[in-house]
Amino acid sequence: MLMPKKTKFRKSHKPSRGGKATRLVKISFGNFALKSIGAHWVSSRQIEAARRVMSRFTKRGGKIWIRIFPDVPITKKGGEMPMGKGKGGVDHYIANVKPGMIMFEMDGVTPEVAKEAMNLAAYKLPLKCKFVAK
C-alpha cells in the first residue's frame, strides 16, 4: 500500500473536502485518464485496488500512472474507548481528491481497452469519475 516514508508531523488535522481542484487538472503523461467529478477522501487501499484491476484488465500491457498519493494521516481510537486520553494512533493514509482532479493516466493500449479498464477502476473508488482522452 502507498504511504509516505517519512512525515514532518505524525498526525495532522482533517483536510477539507470543499472547493475545486487547481492542481492535477491536465493529462500530463498518458493519452487516457480517469478524472474525478466529486470530492472525497481516497484511501491507499482503494488506490491499490483500482491500480490492480486496471493492470489485470490490460493484461499488464501499456503503462499506468497514479497521479494521487495518500499523504494525509487519519487517526482512529480503539473500540469502546472512553472520551479523552488524547488523539488516537494513525490508522491509514488518504489522498484528498477534489472535483476535476486527474487520478490515473494510461497509455500504450487502445481507447476501448483503456475506457473499460478505467470504468472497472472507477467502481473501486468512493467518488464519481469520468473517462477522458487527450
TrEMBL record:
Q: Name one GO molecular function term.
A: rRNA binding
Q: Provide ranges: composition bias, Basic residues.
A: 1-17
Task: Please indicate if the UniProt record lists Ribosomal protein as a keyword.
Answer: yes
Xref: Pfam families: Ribosomal_L16 (PF00252)
**Keyword Protein transport recorded:** no
Which Gene3D superfamilies does this one have? Ribosomal protein L10e/L16 (3.90.1170.10)
Enumerate the Gene Ontology biological process terms. Answer: translation
What Gene Ontology cellular-component terms does the record carry?
Answer: ribonucleoprotein complex; ribosome
Among SUPFAM superfamilies, the record links this protein to:
Ribosomal protein L16p/L10e (SSF54686)
Q: Where is this region: Disordered?
A: 1-20
According to the record's subunit comment, the protein's assembly and interactions are: Part of the 50S ribosomal subunit.
Q: Which family does it belong to?
A: Belongs to the universal ribosomal protein uL16 family.
Instruction: State what this protein does.
Output: Binds 23S rRNA and is also seen to make contacts with the A and possibly P site tRNAs.
PANTHER family linked: 50S/60S RIBOSOMAL PROTEIN L16, LARGE RIBOSOMAL SUBUNIT PROTEIN UL16M
**Record's protein name:** Large ribosomal subunit protein uL16
**What organism does the UniProt record list as the source?**
Candidatus Falkowbacteria bacterium GW2011_GWE1_38_31
Q: What is the lineage of its organism?
A: Bacteria, Candidatus Falkowiibacteriota
